[in-house]
Amino acid sequence: MIIETLQTARRDEMIDITRKVASIVAREGIQNGFAVVYCPHTTAGITIQENADPDVKHDILMRLNEVYPWEHPKYRHAEGNTASHLKALTTGTSQTILINGGKLALGTWQGIYFCEFDGPRTRHYHVKLIEG
Is the whole-model pTM more than 0.85? Predict the structure, then answer.
């Protein structure tokens, strides 16, 4: 398993990690199998989404903020970051990507994103490659 570190810059952001994951696949020489990308944080997540138009990230984060506002009179979590937990619940903690011919089998417009919802922070994500 490979553990990667990244530094986030804002409370909410989506960081494209596709090239990094692809470089891990290439470096390890996996021709066919799976790459599992996992986030070990409760206030961040991993998703696959369009990576051509930056407005997509804007729109996703905008709607998540509307659905899960940072402050709500009924939130009870003492740390005050309930919205970040709800956003992470929505995106999920991991994605599994097929590897075919040594490359990630992503669609033309797809990218892998680390989603920060409680930043800025130093974060980690894990990549597990499974050959087969």
Answer: yes
